[in-house]
Amino acid sequence: MDQLKANIEEELRGLSSRVGLAIEIEGESLYVNCEEAFQSASLIKVPVLIEAFLQSEAGKLNLDQLVSITNYVGGSGVLQAFSRDALLTLKDLMTLMITVSDNTATNMLIDKLGMADINRSIKKMGLKHTVLNRKMMDFEAIEQGLDNYTSPLDMLTSLKIVKERSFLTEESRAAALKMMSYQQFQDRLPGMMDLDRVFVANKTGSLPHVEHDCAVITYKGKTAYAAVLMDRLDDVFSGKQKISKIGKHIYDYLLKE
Description:
Number of strands: 9
CATH architecture: 3-Layer(aba) Sandwich
Number of helices: 9
Order of helices and strands: HEEEHEEHHHHEHHEEEH
Number of domains: 1
Structural class: alpha+beta
Helix content: 40-55%
Distance between the termini: 10 Å
Radius of gyration: 18 Å
Shape: globular
CATH class: Alpha Beta
Largest sheet: 5 strands, antiparallel
Strand content: 15-25%
């Protein structure tokens, strides 16, 4: 993994933005600012997804329950374009929250699951720098200093909970991973990968001056976990490109091994 580390360190050299990353591949790791707290942006939706499956397993939530869409908010997603009498299952909302990062779906799930319960589970997962303090597009809360935070290492732990750890049942893990594999935002870590050759399940996050991605990448029985968080970006497009280049180095390493 020495060459991979050298390639990624070269990508990070001279950056004016702040970068945190955590990468683990088959027992080897590369960490940079991995326990620093960043605004989570939409990465927080992964712990929300895990909590939804936990409550389903506990019998507190029926994922097939039909709900009508309420309290539409803007930003990423498609529900704001749906008809006002649309009915979706809670599982549909979870899928939209992950695949198109739908903010309306996310806020409905936060209301259904309870912010306090989500944060309790975040602690149980061992996420040290992750907290849900506000719903999506809640600019009033941001003005009051309330925001959502996470760290690269916390996101890596979340990915492992989805892929391998026994925090969720095998059925829930498979369903969560499948949702993440249908991710529509593929311009960051998977941006320079041949997705016909590797399996990728990822979740992105964006805010002004902020670009993140975290992904499970598998190839021929080998698994890479990667979380790359960037903030203080003058140019978010260059941030996305940098994350894509890091993803390409991971991809090349997996295929070469």
